[in-house]
Every structure is written in structure tokens, then in C-alpha cells.
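Quick board copy: two proteins, each given as sequence then C-alpha cells.
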Amino acid sequence: MKRSLLFALLCWVASSVAFALEQVEGVYQIGTAQDLVAFSNMVASGNGSISGALTADIDMTDVTFTPIGSTNSKFTGEFNGQEHSIKNLILESEDQEYVGLFGVIGGGAYIHDVVIAKSCRIKGKAFVGGIAGGTNGGGTATFERCGNEATITAIEQNAAGICGVSMGSQCGIVILNCFNTAGIVADREAAAFCGWVGDNGSRIENCYQAGYVIGQDGQYSLWRNTRGKGLNNFDIAGAQGTKISEDEYDMECGAVCYQLNGSQSDAPIWFQTIDKDLHPYPFASRGVVYAVGDLYCDGTPKDETDVSFSNTNESNRDPHSFDDGVCVNCGAADKNYKELTEDGFYLLETAKDLNWFAALVNNGNKKVKARLTADIDFTGYTQDDVMIGGDAFSAEEEDPVRAFNGVFDGAGHTITIDYAASYDGVALFKVVESSTIKNLMVKGSIETSNRFAGGLMFVTRGNSTFENIVVDVDINGSYVGDATHGGICAVAHETPTFSNCAFIGSMVAEGCEGSAAIIGYAHGEVETIIKNCYVAPSELLLANGSTVIARHVKTKKNCFYTDNVISVSDNSVEIISEDLLATGELCYLLNAADGIDAWRQDLGTDNYPVPFADHKMVYAAGSESCDGTLKPDVTYTNTETGVTRDEHNYENDICTVCGARIIRNATQLEALANAINSGEIDGKVIVDVVEDIDMSEIEDFTGIGTRTTELTGEVDEQQNPITRDVKRPFSGIFDGHGHKISHMSIDVQTGNAGLFGLASGATIKNIIVDESCEIWSTGYSAGIVGTACGNGTLTIENCGNEATVNVGPDGANGAGILGVNDLSEAYVRIINCYNTGTITGQRECGAISGWLGDVAEVVNCWNSGFVNPEAIDGERSFARFNGSNVKLVNCYEVEGTQVNQVTLDDVESGKLCFLLNKDAEAPIFFQTLGTDAYPVFDNTHAVVYETVDGGYSNDASASGIETSVVSKKSGIQVVYSLSGARQMQLQRGINIVRMADGSVKKIMK
């Protein structure tokens, strides 16, 4: 007994000492080898999201060390090396996978400013890296300004200087300004920076490799997996990067450092203290390297044979000769020509200003912001081939030095261009990378005999946004073959979004194949998004392989083109009459689909819609049918007069005009399902549930909407009957008005099961499938919607699943809210939904969705239900999806780590309810503490507040939030929403108010 007590006490003391690290603003300070061991132990104990920072170089001589993070507790926090080195770290674990300073890291990890010194030696079985062995799970892990000088060895595969592997290609690997100068050795699949990067979002930029690689896969010396994108990398082999000298003298004397910086010293990325550092480092604490000798004004030597390098600027450099902010000799931009505004923008008013801005960007100052203050006629400069983000001499689809990487706000103004090109890639913006261009009109013309003309840009890379853009450019191309012209953008890479854009110019290129009016070609078919856009050209004549909107783009949401386009077609978007441009109808349709107000039009003046705020809104005037369909008498106006909507004419709870239905009982719900599933009525119907529905007396209910096969009446060559796939989805509006479905039992030997078996372009809201319900099927099933189909928008809002969903021992895609987005065609929106039910299947199941597809948003949702672990795909316990265009915002789960994690205590205590409502204008979820086990939608239950001591209560006064009634005596001067918008009066929920005495309070109404 005493021995056990003593052992426990010793363990407690040891763990207390091990974890006794100093914190500064929540970051653990690591100054010794023992501190580093303690940090690793903390992560191993389940604290993977903590952050640490080195305060000194760490000498690991004779110290036993376990890599930070494992498959059981991966590291997902921030580690700041603060330019320090890890020295004498010896890891020789030939039977161990995931070996490095870090073992296993996950999405969200950010490791930066640390070097693994030459005195270290790291060896493992597989997945070995100087900085990290590998990643596990999705998301993105980032390494910035990290270096490896140590020999890295993997007995089997995936050795690398920075990160060994992205396991399963799930985690994006971002490696920025990193280096490797040592040997990388493996039996196979070795690389200098990463042995295998993830499929989505992986980037390797501004890195250099001066070591050797044994076990290299073909020419992939720096990283493996072609889905990883590289920019401005250097390599002594010259395989995946620009070749640099492998001569030790060139590395030590500063010549390579100067080359890495683009042969200039004005804005260096790489630094080196000459006569001390054996190679360049990405740390500004080292010296800037200058070329010494007679130099031109751009910093290049006049005599390449008579130049040396120094940390002192001793060069004899010619001065710039600036004219209107641009050097007449080298084209450099005078950085003092324009001043920045308080919000960091350059204001551009004239063509000279825009030319200066182009020079600024093209000389490497690409992360800048500009705003137009006037229309600009840029034709004089474009006739001399001036472009932003590149020049006429390069047709490369990436330009890491000059690619525009900032914000360009046209502020509703127009730039006029005039290009005559005999080169590839002509456009106002040459190369754009992870930028925002908005509120701009481009007019003019482009005459080209070559490929890749773009009305706005040649190529976009990275995560760029283009919004509120109108291009009225006449593009005339004489190239014969695959030209890939784009009315707005010729070529798109990675994840661009085009919203509220229009092409209204012309494209006359009858021999030019593979072109389109918005994007000529998108390399990211599922990553590229085009929404709320239209094409209304004066002429569109394109050759084979061309289309109207964009080539190789799957998501084209709420887009239109006019019926004067006849040379090409696009079945994925809507055709409208050219006559509707001037009437305002197209403007109204663009805004109505998503409830936006981006498009404007001064009727009688504007011949087409424009996305500029200084124009007027367009409203419908007249009447609409009871189902919301506009009647023929509707006209369009700039005055908000409103539309009169007919009342439903119900007989036996079915509207005799539009077929809308009121559901009061289970028999009516079953009748609705049977009518849609049999094809008796179209699935586009309005449904209102006005009572809780008890389904206990209904047998063989299969859900609303179905997918089946039917005989065509024909036979094949073997006289076998030919069948066809028939989809009869629900595609209307279903409003449960907060009611519950109980005792619903679905037991089918097929897939596509749920309250809604099949849904397309539907809105389903305010309904709960309670715990008395159960769904048994063979796959693609959920409590709310089994399967989404078609390319419309499926919205599921304020819905809860408490039922058991079981897709069988061989089934896939079981979930609480949506089973599967079939073929990833739909745009899925799941807002304010939850699952508390049990989800069982063989594979690919999730609490909220088994497959969201390529483009979706899941906002303010939570799960406390159980998903059997064998059915979960990796760590995607909450929802499965593809690509980077799926957003999970403010979501929570009890089991799993894909989204924010909470405990069952958090669910019961009210913490989860508070977090769900925290940023909402008014409470969405309610919970009477002590009575409700979890948050509910019923607003007769109580609001949850955070108390001043960090607890949770239904008492507003415990939180310091006052409850108030609006009155002149209340002393309230100004009312704001939680987002900061000024209000005319107190709104339901929490308000921020300024009182007459100047104090600021939170007040609950």
C-alpha cells in the first residue's frame, strides 16, 4: 500500500515538473533541452493545440527525446523557433514511423523560424523529416522560414528535409522560405522538402535545396505529388527549381544568396553573414548581401567577372532617373511617388499613376493595394504592352517575382485598354496570385495573333477573388488551334472565385479553339466557382472546344447568357432573351436567386446591369401567383413599390392554384410522398407543417422524393428489357415551423432514405426528426435528406436529427442531416442544424453529412451523437467533402476533432448553446438549463448567457447583460448590433448600446 502510494506520488511530482513550463501570453517558453522534452510530453498527454516558442538554441546532447506529436495526439498548434537552432538531436529509430523534431502534426499546425542543425542526425523506418515526420488528417500545415542541415534517413520511404509525408494526401503542405543543405536518404520516394504533399492547397515557395537526395523519384527532387504547386524555388540539380551553383565557395561568399533574392538587395528574403554563415538563412538577423562593383541602376553588375559580395553596400551603383515615378533606364518604380492612405491603399487617378503602379508590381512589390479615384484611359501605355504582374516577354503561367498579390479596387471606375499582341498572354493583369480585384469595369480592345488573351487577366493562381467586374472588351484573335482566350480570364489555377461578373464585349476568334467568355480554361474543375454572373456579348464567334461561360468548371451558380450567342452553348446555365438586358429583368433575376443586392441598373440609362453601388436597385412591380411566380403584368422599376402576392386557395389543405400543401397529420405527409414519388405531382411544391406529426400508424413509408428504375418498353440486342434511371426529387420549399416528426420508421433494401429520400434545389427548414424515429437502408441515407441531386442549391436550415440511421454492414454515406451529394452536383447549405442520433454504417459516414461534395457551407451546426468509428473516413467524423470550397464555420462535435471539440458537460451546461449564439444577431438556439439536455430551436425555452465568472446561466443579470424595454427614459443614445451595424432601435437578442452618460453596455431585449 505504501509502495503504491509512493509510486503515485513520484509520478505526480515528475509530471508536475515536466509540465512546469513558463507561459507568456499563452505560449510555452522553451529555453532548455528539458523544456523541449516537457513540451513534447504535454502534447503526448493530449494537448496537441498548445503553442511553444524557443528562447535559445537547444542542445540535445545525451537527451532522450520523443518527437513532438503522435497519431494518438498530433501537434496542431504554433511553434516559433525565433530563429534558434536545435543542436545535437540524435533520433535513430529504425523501427519507428513519423520521426523528426515533430512526429505527427495536423491541420492548423504552424512551425516557423527554426533550424535543425548539422550536428543532428535523424533516422526512422518511414515518414522521416528534419522538422516533421508527417501529417495525419485534413486541413493545412504550414512551415515557414525553417531549415534542415542534418542528414535525414528513412529505411523505407518518404524522407525529406522539412516534412516526410502528408498521409493519405489529406493535409495540404505549405512550405515557405525554407531550405535544405544536407543529405536526404531513403530506399524510395525521398525529396529535399517533402516526400509527398497533400492534394489540396499544397505550396512550396521561395525555397532552396543545396544538399543531395538518394532514393529520389524521377525528377522530383524537391517534393512529390504533382498537385503541389511550386513558385520561385532553387535547386543545385535544377530539376524542380532554378539551378543554383553547387560550388561551396559560391554558397559561402554570398553569390547564391544574391541570386536567391533576384540579384537585388532592396527587398531580400534571404540573408547571410559573410565569413560566418556557410549558406543563406531566411532570417533578417543575418546580414543583407550586396554585390560590390560597378552596377547599373537596377543592381546588376556591369562586368560579371569583376563583382564580389559583402554585407556592406559598397557598390558604385548608377542612380535611377525617374520620370512620373518610373525609371527611364531600368523601369524601376519610385516608391515615394505616391503616399499610402490610412487603410494602406495607393490612390490612382491618372494613366501615369496606373503605369507607376504596374512598374511597382512588376519590380517585385506585388503585395500592394490600389484604389481608383477616376476613370483611366490606359490605351497609350497598353499600346506599348504595359501590363500589371508581368510583361510581353513571358508566357509562363506563374511569375513568383512579379505576379500581382494584393487588392485592386476599381471603386466603380473604368480602365480603357488597347493591345495589339503577337505574344502569348495579353491582358491588363498578366499574372494574378491570391489577390482580390473588385468593383472594376474594363473597356477597349485586344487584337492578338497568339494564345491566352484575357479581357481582365491572363492567368490567376492561388485563392483569388474577382467580384463586381464588368468587361466590355472586343477580343479579336487570328490564332488557329487551341488558343484558350477568356473574356475575363484566359487560364485559372487552384481556387479562384468569380462573383457578380459580366462579359458584355465581343470575341471574334473563329479559328481559336478552347475559349470562353469568362474563363478560357480552369485547371481546378471543382475548386473554381463562378456565381451570379452573366454573358451578354455583342458577338461571340469561337471555334471547336469552346463554350459560353467557362471550360472545365463545375460550379456555375445562378449564371445566365443571352440568346444572341449561337456559335457555342452551355447547358449548365440559363439562356435569357437579349431584350431583357435593358428592362431590368436580368438585374432582378441575378439578385433574387440568392437574395443579394450586388447588381444595380439605372433604368432608362443603363443598357445592362452593373455591380456598382452608385447605380440604383431594380425592383419588380406588379403581382405574383401564390407560389411566388411573377405574373405577366410585372414590370421593373428603380422605385421599391412591392409585388402583390395572391393568397393560396386551399381545399382539403391543398391549394387548387399551385398545389401547395398544409400538413397536419401523418396521412397527409404520406400522401405528399406518394404523390411526388409516383410522379403524380412535380416535386416543386410549397409545404407547411402546422402540427407535430406522429407516424406510428404509417407502414412502408419511404420518404419524400425517390430514385428508381423504370422500363422503357424497349429491348437490347439480347432481347433484355432496357430500363432508365428515374429521379423524382423534392425540389420545393418545406417549412416545418419548428414541429417534430415522431415514430417515423423507414426500412428499405435500397439507398436514398430519409424524411426526404431525394432532394434537388430544395429549401428544407424548421423540422426535427426525433429520437423515436429510425432509418434502415443500404446506403446514402440521413434523418433529413438521404440524397441531394442536380446542380441547384440545397438549403437545410434549422433542422435536427435525433433518429437512428443505419445503412447496414456494407453501406456507405449514412449521416444525420445529409447522406450524400450525388456526383457532387449540388451546392449544399446546412445552417443551424444538429445531430444527436446514432449513425451506423460500413464506411464513409459522418455526423452531419456522409458526402457534401465539392462546394458547400456548413454553418453553426453541432453533433453529440455517435458515429461508429469503423465507418468514419480518417478524421472526417463531422462531414466528408472534397476540395477547399467547403466551409465549416462555427461547428462543434463531442466525438472527433474535425471541427471545434466540446464535451458532453459543455452540451449540458449551456456552453455549447452560448457558443452557437455568440456571434448571432439574435439567439438561434435555446436551452433551459437543468431541464434541456442540449440546445433546442424552441424560443419558449431560455436564452443562455455566459456569466462573469465563466459559467453559464439563463439569468441575463449574471452575465452583466441588462434586459431593457425601449423608452425615452432608458437613457439609450445609440444602438448597435453585435457586428457593429447601427440600429434604429433595440433588436431582439443582444444589443450593444451607448448610454447618455457615455457608458457602453450589452442589453438583451
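And the next:
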Amino acid sequence: MSRPHSVPTPVTAGEHPSDLAALLRACVDDPRRVTTDLPRRVAAAHDASPYLFAPRAVVRAASASEVGALMAGARAAGLPLTLRSGGTSLAGQAGGDGVLVDVRTHWREAEVLDDGHRVRLQPGLTVRQANARLARYGRRLGPDPASESACTIGGLVANNSSGMNCGTQDNAYRTMESLQFVLPSGTVIDSGAADADERLRAKEPELHAGLVRLRDRVRSSAPARATVERLFAMKNTMGYGLNSFLDHTTPADLLAHLMIGSEGTLGFVGEAVFRTVPVLPHAATGLLILPGLAEATDALPALLAAGARTAELLDASSLRVAQLDPGSGTALRGLRVEHHAALLVEFAEDTAERLEEVAAAARPVLERLPAVTGTALTRDARERARLWHLRKGLYTAVAGARRPGTTALLEDIAVPMDRLTRTCEGLIGLFDRHGYEDAVIFGHARDGNVHFMLTQDFDSPAETDRYARFTDDMVDLVLAAGGTLKAEHGTGRAMAPFVRRQYGDELYDVMRELKRLCDPAGVLNPGVLLDEDPSAHLRHLKSVPPVDPAVDACVECGYCEPVCPTADVTTTPRQRIALQREIALAAAAGDDDRRRELEDDYAYAAVDSCAADSLCVTACPVTIDTGAVMKRLRGERHSPLAQHAGRVTAEHWATAVKGVRIGLGAAHALPAPLTGAATRVIRRLGATELVPAWSKDVPRGGGPRPAARQVPAAQAVFFAACIGSVFAPEDTGGSGPGGSGERPSGAAGAFLRLCDRAGVAVDVPELAGLCCGTPWQSKGYTEGHRAMAARTLDVLWEASDHGRLPVVCDASSCTHGLDQLAAALPEADRDRYSGLRFVDSVTFAARTLLPLLPEAPRLDSLALHPTCSTVHLDITGDLRTVAEAVAGEVTVPDSWGCCAFAGDRGLLHPEVTAGATAAQAAEVNEREHDAYASCNRTCEMGMTRATGRPYRHVLELLADALDRSGTSGG
């Protein structure tokens, strides 16, 4: 996956950013992937750790050879280089003040091998994305970090990730088969190649010989060997993985395994091949509440021996936090928590029969436990999800409730199992001594690995000193117990000053020599993993100023980034919030030039380019809806005159829709170059938020909305979305400027045909001038949104017989818009609104129509694009059900994401949709499908533009199939 690339002649970059930019641009094929612009550097600087550095440049590398060239370029410039993928690491290892190299954007390839028993992965894929590719084979990666939705393969390798189930047997180190890595010299080694060791010896003779020397040194020292064996019998990500010197022999193999957990300080891993583990689909879960920590840890050996795959510990403070969760259950809510502790245990097997056997054998063990609320295990998926939510929701509860301006710190340690109770009690004592009243302890008790979470303010010397004193005491406690100061999260900068204490002088010298051999110039991530400065962990701490109550809870974890459609084009939700904080800090410091530069960029890079699909809130652990915030900011920019214009448009919406339809027809009647040139001129005059970038693939105007009708025994009210009238469906271009015919076409016509065929009567109200309100909401036209919400509510309240009938809508984003009208309504109208039930047409079809319809002749294959609204409405399953009635094989791309067309965003800012759809379009086009479907007109337009394939509403395809069959239902 790499191509040759020349290493530039070393040149001094000088102090001016343009000199550095020129040097780095010579290292990559596309100079546009290098930036020294302040806003881009500031946005990329923020990660999930409490540390913050200001990089001098940000580069999106696209090949191993480019990374090697950039290492040489950074060395020539006298700057450090930091590799960044997901930015979810918690200890400061993903930030630096030199050249920050993005190895996520162009590094998302995967190749499944041996029917899923092995997989080759690039560093930019998230663990969840990798597992999605393995799921059809019944396999998954061994490491199972809780951050799997956002943490990437690059971080998984760099930190030697593990998780709740994998222990030390199935972590990244144990399941890695081979790596392709780039050394700071530019040498590329594939450890899976038969000649890997010979190549390393030839290209890097000093390194090769040095690895042999270090291997023999560790093996020949009984004390060193004993320390390595003791520490790596536990989960341990402190320092370098010195167990490699005991487990492996050839230098190439040694170095490949030393790369794991090296946190970007030895080289860059461009590919990794992993052995996978089987998915165990059958599970039984129980929350065992015990009188105290001792009883909980005493129970562990018997539970693990009985077959428990997972045993998560929650201390008394965690249980008190969990009690506040509405889903905590009556047993936990009714408990007076004193010194209690709990174990969340899970048994999992490959068959239901095997699970039954294991659970039955474990029953005597469970019954002997002094559990205060019973020892029942549940196999019910919803109940199991509720129990896991209590454990995973601890971070959300504590982080979300912290005081604005503070940082949520999540640390982890591991100790031998027989010292776990004493260590947890010691931590609780330290929390009390240092005033961390909201601290909680939870973690992977089966591995002696616990996490503790506390909130910290770093904006005053006194607070930083408190943190320093707590850290020193914590280090004493853990090392006295024979434990490790980092079990899963990596050493980073947080624990780098304590590596020598944990390992001793001899092994610390081995680590320093390893770093010198691999990176003699010290270019890669200096200060990470090894640092002689005893107070290094107290420097470069992040300031988190309050900026907006809607976003102040953000912990900059980056969970939002994989679902954000603008991540590869402009900014992510994390970056949008981080930039607000940077603007506030610049203002507080009186740095007006910096503030203005950031604000000027923010208008487009954050506000205007945001798709506002709010998928970020579905991924955010503290439920921040950055999309909603961007919509609000759009509204705050509007003048009173603009808001009035929005209201007038709402009040004359029927005329506006007709005008757009006529305008689209007229635009298509003109030569495309002429229309395109005219729109470009207008947009250059500042109308980029009003006038679309014209393209010949913009549809003609659509047909009319369905005529009003009332029928006997109606089962629903049909609210045909106006977007179907604005744009013609994919299979017809209309019959002129005003649209086509008198019968409704597209999704609306298909829905009514399906209802007629199924014998299901539906009423249609007078729809002229009505809308779900989304166009005003997404653009921040609050007056227009309120006016439209009031009128639509009045009509639907009467049409639905005061809420007796469900209201069905034929566009998923419009169904979602109707679902959100309450925010635009006065308090007096919200009781009526709460009485309405909104149902998307695919859900109505899946649950009401399909059972009454004959089976349609099915196509062989269909590519399906769920929408962000199907995620919010939780109806993606219904969409798939309807799609499966159309085709025998239904494929949702592994790289699926929001298309970012977002109503008119794709017309106003086509570059956003192009970036959002690039990966899934390439995946869709890897093969031919008989049909292409979605459930929202503008999303269909976006995917049609991206793929060159005709995407249609899934109900159109179903109705056409039944029309061709000539059968009727009912």
C-alpha cells in the first residue's frame, strides 16, 4: 500500500511558517495536505488528554514513504514529529509542538484474510469499523477497548490496547501477527516478509546489532528478567514492552513487538495483521452487589473458575452515581449504599446450549456469594444492555456533572489480584485526603485492573499542586503493591517521569538505549513514555474555559469524530468546541489578532459547513449536540430583517415551493454552462448560504403533493414531505418547468400505491403551505420555524383526530423534523403536540403494510443507504426489513456514514458531501447492484451524485416491484 518517495535534502526551515510549509510540502505528493494556518493547527492540537501543545504544522500523510519523508523533513527543521490517528489517548501521547502528522484520514483500508481468522488493517480505521468487516465471519479483534467506536488501529497498536474481556491473552501484543513499520531513518520493514530480518540487518546494521545486544542483556540478568516477568504477568502499558526480549528472538520480530505500546516514539506502523477471535453471541449477565470491596474481590477467583468471561468492579461511589440513572432498577435504587461494591459479571459462549451448561455449573458458586440483591443472570438483550449502561455510563455521569472549567481525568492501574482490595481502599483514602469528593473506582477486576476518575482544575497553581501531591501518593501506593502505574491507557506524558521508579535503573537504561537505537535524533514524540524531568507531567496542562453551557461538558474525547461527515473536510464536533475555547482564551489574553483569525475561520469551517445532522450526540458520552449548537449560532448571525424574511417565507411556503419548482425547470431549460456560470458569480458576491452551486445532476422540479382526502376507517394520516415536490424523483425528470403530471410521484406516490394495494386507508390533509420545519431550524431562522410549527400543528391535530391516528411521513429527515417541532412551539401548545404520534413511512410499511402485501418478485442485490435520521428515529432495522422485501441481498457499506447533503448543504457546499461520501461511494462501486435505495430525497441525491448510481426511495422500489408482478394484497 506504499509507493516510493524521495527524501528531501535537509534544509533549515527557518522561523517563518512558509519556510516550514515549503519543506514539508516537498515531502508529500499533494501540497494541499500540509497546513501551517493557525485555525487548522489549533483545531488539530486538541485530544482526549489533559495536555495541550501547539503544533507548528499539520500534515495529512497518505503513504508509508511520505511518513518517512516527513520524519526526515522534521529532522531537517529541527522539530519533533508526532503521529496522530484517533486522538482518543488519555495520557498526552498524541500531541506535540512540532509537526503533527495525521495518519487517520488516508489510512482506512482493511483486508479480511482466511475467512476472517486474520485481518490486515491500516491505522485510521476504528476498532468498531474493523470489527464490522469481521462480523459477517463471526470473528472480531481480540482487544476490546471501551472506546472502540472512536479509538483507531493506530492507537490500539501504539498503546497495546486490551479491554474488558481480552485480559493479557488477546491484547494487541498477543494477537499481532506482523507489522509494516517505518523507522525514523525512512527504512520500511514488513515483519511478515520472509526476509524481514535480513532486510533490517542490511538497512539498519547498528539497530539490528543493538537489538541483539539488548535482548541478551535482559535475558542474562536474573533481576531484570524477574521484573519483566512480574510486571507483564499483569496488564501493563508502562514504558516499552520489554517482554518482547523474552518472548521473541530475531531482531525484526523483536522490533515489531516493541513497536506495540511504543506510543509513536520508535516508528510508524502503517499496517498490522492480526489474528482474530470468535464472537460469542450468547451471553448471560448479572449485577452482583456485595457488602464491600473485600467480598467482591474474594468472589473473583471462583467466578472466573466457573467460566465468567467478564467481571467489572464498581465501588460504593460508583454505585451511588449509578443509582441516579433512571434505568438503575428498583433493587439498586432502593439500596442504602454504605461500603458496598458490585461485580458486573458476564458468561458468554458460542451456542445457547453451551451457555446454559456453563450458567448451570456456575449457579452453586453464585448462590454461595453474600450478594445483597440476588445473583440472577439475564439473557434478555434489553436487560443486559441496561446493566452494561450502568457500568459504561459512569464516565458520562461524572464527566457530565463536573464543574465548568474542570477536566475529567480517567486513570488506570493494575496490581496483583491478592492486593486489589487493599489498593482500592488506599485509593479511596487518597481521594479523601486530597479532596476529590466525586472520584469513582471501576474497572476490569478479573485482571486486577481498575480505573479511577476524578475532576481537576489546572488553572491555578494550588490546584495543580494538589494534583501533583495526589499523583505522588498514588505512585507510592501502586508501586508498593507491586503494581503498574499504567495498565491500558499508555504511559504518555502523564507517567513518563515515573518509568524509572517502576522498572529500576537497569531496565530503564535498556529503554533509553532502545529509543536511541531507533530514533538517534530524538525526532519522534520526545517527552512521551520516557522523560527525565520529574515534573514533566505537570507541564502543558490544558485550560478549559467555560464558553457555552451547551458544550462546556465536552471532555474532548473524540468519540464524535468517526460519525461526523465533515471530519475529513473542515472540522469535527470536538474541534468546533475546542476552537470556541481557543477563541475565549485569546479574548481573555487580549490577543485580538489571534481571536479575529480564529473567528473569521470559524464562520465557514465550523458553522456553515456543519451538516447539523446531530449524529455527534449519538456518540457523545456526555450527550452534547454540536449540530444543534451550530444551528443556533447560524440563527444568532441573522439580522432582525433576515429573521422576518424567514417568517414571511414560512407564511407563503406554498408559493415558495412552486417558485423553486419553476426555477429548477427553467434552470434545466438553459445550457448547463450558462446556469453554472450565473450561480458562481452570485455566490462570489457573498450568497454562498443562499444560492446553490449549480450542477447538471440537480433534479428538475417535482410533481404536486397528494390532494387532500378523507376516507372511511382511515388508519393513519399521510403527511407527504414537501421535498418530494421540490425535487423530482430519480426515475423521472418531470414534464416541464412546473413538474410532472397531477398524480403524486416519488416516495409519496409509492406510499399511497402500497396503501391501496394493502387495503389500508389513509387520510391526507390539505398540505399546501405545510412543512416539518427543518429548513428553518437547520438555518437558524427561529421566527419562521415557530410560524411553520404552529400552522403544521393546527392542521395535524385536527387531521389526526386529536392524536388518535398516527401521522406518517415519507422522508426520514422530515419525520425527524416533525419529531422535533416541540422546541419551536409555545408552552401552551406542547400538550397538543405531545399527543401526536409521528411514524416514518418505512416503519409503517415494515410493520403495517408488508404483512398485508403479497410477496414481490425480488431483485438479486440492493445497496442500501440508511440516513442520519433513521439512526435518530431508531428505524434502520425497519428500513432494512423493507429493503429485504425488495432484494435477496441487501448491503449497507461498512464505511456507511451521513452523506452530509443535509437538505441544501450539499447544494451550497458540495465539497462537504464529496468528502463525507468518498469512502462509501468507492465501496458501493466495487460491484454492481440491481438497485440503490435510501429513504430521503436529498440523501438519494447526495448518494446519486457520489456514486453515479440512481438512488431511489425504498418504497418506490417496492411499489414498482409489486406493480410489475400485477398482484394485489389485502
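Board note added afterward: Residues 1-14, 732-740 have pLDDT under 50 and may be disordered.
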